[in-house]
Amino acid sequence: MATTTAGKHAHLVGERRRVRGRRRWSPGPWLFLAPYLVLFVAFVLAPAIYGLWMSLHDWSYLGEHRFAGLANYARLFDRGSASAWAFWKSMGVTATFVVLSLPLMLVVPLLLALALDAKLPGRTFFRALFFAPYTLGVAVVGILFRFMLDPSLGLVNKVLGADIPWTTEQPWVWVSLVGVTVWWTLGFNTVIYLAGLQDIPKELYEAARLDGAGRWSQLVHVTLPGLKPVIALVGTLTLLASANMFGQAYLVTGGAPAHGTRTAVMIIAQEGLVNFRLGQAAAMSFVLAAILAVLGLSAARLTRQEAP
Q: Is the Cβ–Cβ distance between 106 and 254 less than 8 Å?
């Protein structure tokens, strides 16, 4: 009996090898991937390589450049360098924005998704309503709230009957930036949470109800454990997006007060496009990218650990 089973196994293995040997190369999969590969190379890989090359050079206002090696990177870790002071101060501002906004952009969309997941009349309308702001461009959102939050002429102060410096003084500038960002991105995270809620087996809720679990117990013991990978994903995406925040601060506060809301991307843009130190700006970009890569990989590892 064992000999017969072993013979059948060897026959199946040999048959699989013969089938693999007869397989021919097919261009079909590569044709489907070609559009993405062309766009990836043209707009991601090639600019990244060119940016790395730029970071190793010093540029003049006339566009001339000379090889500088790692000098641009060394300046960023030199305490006496003006570029280092401005860059790391902006990194601190970016970290502050991430710390203030990340919890809200995780919790508020989750609560909204739980409400929209219930079988209530008009839930489709409300899903579209909350997602609508995310379809707006950052320029539209920034200019809109710049006028609404203007301390002198803004609609918000007129409605409140107050004189709050939403865009010019601490801590109100952070209230403005975080509030605008949460309102703008709320719908995107909510949609991801809703998709995660649909993947939780309904049988788990039925079993929990049979065991006498109430809504709170179902939330703690069924919903949140089932959403752990989704929460990790939303956290990763939100962290990376928040660390690259530019448009809201540039358009709503302009980096005020006293560069207190000037983020890392803003100082990179100023170094490259205003001061025309393209090599230094490229080096700043790669340092920021390296930090975000570490954070992203850590979050991805957490996601794998939390996956059921």
A: no
Q: Which CATH superfamily is domain 89-306 in?
A: MetI-like (1.10.3720.10)
CB 179 within 8 A of CB 162: no
For 73-132, write each residue's pLDDT tens digit. Answer: 999 999 888 889 999 999 999 999 999 999 999 999 999 999 998 877 778 888 889 999
CA distance 230 to 196: 6
Q: Where are the beta strands (DSSP E) in 57-214?
A: 57-59, 65-67
Asked if residue 68 lies in contact with residue 279, where contact means CB atoms within 8 angstroms, the answer is yes
Type and span of the H or E element at 107: helix 82-117
E-state strands within the chain: 57-59, 65-67
| Structure token digits, residue 305 | 């650990």
Transcribe 209-222 into DSSP letters.
HHTT--HHHHIIII
Within its chain, how far is the Cα of 199 from the centroid? 23
- Can you give the pTM of this predicted structure? 0.86
Q: Which two tokens stand for residue 183?
A: 């309102």
* Residue 87 burial (10 A CB sphere; 0-12, 13-18, 19+): buried
Q: Are 109 and 144 in contact (CB under 8 A)?
A: no
Q: How far is CA 265 from CA 72, 80, 261, in A?
A: 17, 22, 11
pLDDT in tens, 123-154: 888 888 999 999 999 999 999 999 999 998 89
Residue 166 contacts residue 156 (beta carbons within 8 Å): yes
Give me the half-sphere count of Cα atoms (radius 13 Å) on the Cβ side of residue 106. 21
For the chain, give every domain's residue range: 89-306
What the block records as the tokens of 17 is 């090898």
